[in-house]
Amino acid sequence: MTTRMTENGVSTCRKAGSEQFEKFQTGIGRRKRTLVQYDYRAYDGELFSCVAPTLEECRRKCNGWLSEKERKEAGNE
Question: Choosing a second label site near 50 at 20 to 30 A (CA), which of 18, 29, 42, 62?
Fold first, then answer.
């Protein structure tokens, strides 16, 4: 699969606070499904990546990850 989101298997999402996504199809014949690959680079440099059926679901997962990350950081201070 050719992708603009990776170079040599490494995410090209490098700028803090940026996101990238692209749609791709998986399956054979009539069983093809369209999925979205999503990358988000947090302001601390950590990368969140997921695959889901829609961009909205990817963003919902990312927001949950960010909320959990903030909760854990607040507990450590």
Answer: 29
The closest of 65, 4, 71 to 37, measured between CA atoms, is 4
Give φ, ψ of 50 to 5 degrees: -155, 170
pLDDT single digits (tens) 40-62: 999 898 999 999 999 999 999 99
Question: Could you tell me which of 55, 44, 56, 50 has the C-alpha nearest to residue 17?
Answer: 44
CA Rg, the chain, in Å? 15
* pLDDT tens sequence across 12-35: 777 788 899 999 899 888 889 999
Tokens at 49, concatenated: 């990546």
